[in-house]
Automatic annotation (TrEMBL):
GO molecular function: O-succinylbenzoate synthase activity
Gene3D superfamilies: Enolase-like C-terminal domain, Enolase-like, N-terminal domain
The protein, known as: o-succinylbenzoate synthase
Natural source organism: Sporolactobacillus spathodeae
Superkingdom of the organism of origin: Bacteria
SMART domains: MR_MLE (SM00922)
Cofactor(s) demanded: a divalent metal cation
Mandelate racemase/muconate lactonizing enzyme C-terminal domain sequence ranges: 142-234
Keywords assigned: Lyase, Magnesium, Metal-binding
EC top class named in words: lyase
A Pfam family the protein falls into: MR_MLE_C
Keyword Lyase: yes
Amino acid sequence: MRIDSITVRLIAAPLKASFATHLQTVTEREAIILEVRDSDGRCGYGEADPFSSPWYSPETIDSCLNILTNDLIPLLSQHTIAQLEELDRAFDPVRGNHMAKSGLIQAVWDLIAKQQKKSIQNLVGGDKKSILAGAVIAATDPEQAIEQIAAYSEAGYKRYKIKISKENDHQLLTAIRQKYPELPLMADANSAYSLADIPHLKTLDDYGLLMIEQPLAWNDLADHACLQKQMQTPICLDESICSAADMKAALRLGSCRVAAIKMARLGGWNETLRAVQLCAAASLPLWCGGMIEFGIAKAHNLALASRAEFVLPGDLFASSRYWEEDIIEPEIQVVNGSIDLPEKIGIGFAVNQKQLDKLTKQKWLFRH
Ligand SMILES: [Mg+2]
């Protein structure tokens, strides 16, 4: 594959509703959009989604821009990518920086899918026609949580995830269970607890949760294995899974009974599919995680979630949940709790150029 040019855009948009966790409240979202163009004028799109500051992951918008423009894009220009596996070798000189790699690798996969006149879904072996949508409730009090659940249930979302901490868990979960005793509910702790909280965490078994996500440290596997042995509720690892090697270690240790796969954190398609294959071999149920993305990353995630290993509804919701107007056309819609997969080639959605231009704060062009 011959690359003609790569455009990097820094975009930003306010969220229609703020997103509160015990670590941070997000009200505006920045992202990096990658456009990789070939000499025939075809364009592949990718999206890098670190947050603006390192509260969730070590990478930030600034660090990603730096690595993309100074390291990854120059490395890509030195390689001819005939096989997608060659992307791994091209980026071998850069350790870590998975979110930066993920955005650029997504764009190359989209371009190659378009060159082969295939959808990304087809390229990655996904065969579902539609996938189940999951809602994320990020609320500061029970009233707000109930309000958000009510709004999502109107569209028939199939799974509800509430952000919790040690300070608000019982208050939020009791209120939700009183109003919605049968709701398919899970809780995401974003590392709000430690092993010293085992007696407290065991009391959460009473709420009939589908799973508890990342209760302990963001970079831990051993303590989660210890906790899982003592909790009935399945533990789902999210932040701890940054590579296929992490996934292998979690499976060997018994650190979780479910995993949330986030392509952004794993460094793009190649490494993500390696982790998925390990989970398939171990029959570990998966779901696709979210990063409050714009439509381009969401389109890649839809293709990922269309694989058979993704048996649980993921953090996949309608464009209109957070954006006044998304950067793809048509926007992602949830109908009766499901999202239909697009049938077009590549990511399957057109880019809304007018909206993309409107959200662009800065733009860099690299010619090869
Ligand atoms: Mg999470």
